[in-house]
Amino acid sequence: MSKSSTQNVNVLLIDDHALFREGMALLFEAEPGFTMVARCSSGAEAIDILRTRHVDIVLLDLDLGHEKGSDVLDTLLALKFEGKILVVTAKVDEKDVPDLIRKGIAGILMKHSPPTILLQGIRDVMDGKVWFDQSLLQRALSYQEEEATVANTELTDRDKKVLSLVFEGLSNKEIASRIQSSESAVKRSLRQLFQKTGVRTRSQLVRVALEHHQNEI
User: Fold this and answer.
1) Three-class SS state of 42
2) The pTM is what?
3) Residue 193 lies in a domain
4) What is the CATH number of the domain that holds 121?
5) Which of 96, 133, 156, 188 is deepest in the core (most CB within 10 A)?
6) DSSP track, 115-161
């Protein structure tokens, strides 16, 4: 179960830029409902923290200078980290987006985004939504179109509509409002999508949309 945004959120930052780490520490210090558990410059430091402290969400840079953020992500997965992972980075190759989602990240947010967007992104992720920079998703979508991946899964029109709204990062309640249905009906639709696509999370559904249904959403 995800922690509600009304509760305190324990944040772990992994970024190799000292100025960015300090700036983020000041941001969270001034924002009620967030606690910066630690700010680390490497995966090794982060793993030591995770062994002894409770962390709800990891903010992970993909470029850590001496190591790749994707390698740190693999380590977190191997350790069965149960919290959320939000990539906060300056640059990401669109062709890598599906693989990052496949590994279980809850979203990607660009460093040039305003602090208010970052805070809202964390809140939404903790409430079970996904949060992806929309321009990045569009570039990833274009890349997948060029690759011409073919889907084997047959989706109904309703499946495709719900999938497109998940792709936009909407909550179940917001999806229900868009399609003029009940929230319980949306939950049933999502369960069917999970079964049809063989995935378990909303972020993985975004990856399915990118890889297989880019022409239908």
Assistant:
1) coil
2) 0.66
3) yes
4) 3.40.50.2300
5) 133
6) HHHHHHHHHHHHTT--EE-HHHHHHHHHHHHHHT--------HHHHH
Structure tokens at 119: 């805070």
Asked if residue 143 is part of any domain, the answer here is no
Separation between Cα atoms, residue 173 and residue 13, nearest integer Å: 30
Percent of the chain with pLDDT over 70: 86
Q: Tell whether 39 and 90 lie within a shared domain.
A: yes
Residue 214 — very low, low, confident or very high, per pLDDT cuts 50/70/90? low
From the list 99, 169, 85, 104, the residue with the least C-alpha distance to 134 is 169
Domain around 158 = 149-212
Give the residues across from 9 on adjacent strands: 34
pLDDT in tens, 121-140: 899 899 888 888 777 766 66
| Tens digit of each residue's pLDDT (9 = 90 or more) over 3-59 | 544 478 999 999 999 999 999 999 999 999 999 999 999 999 999 999 999 999 999
Distance separating alpha carbons of residues 179 and 163, to the nearest angstrom: 12
Cα 205 to chain centroid distance, Å, stands at: 11
Beta-bridge partner residues of 108: 87, 132
Alpha-carbon distance of 163 to 9, in angstroms, equals 28
Number of structural domains found in the chain:
2
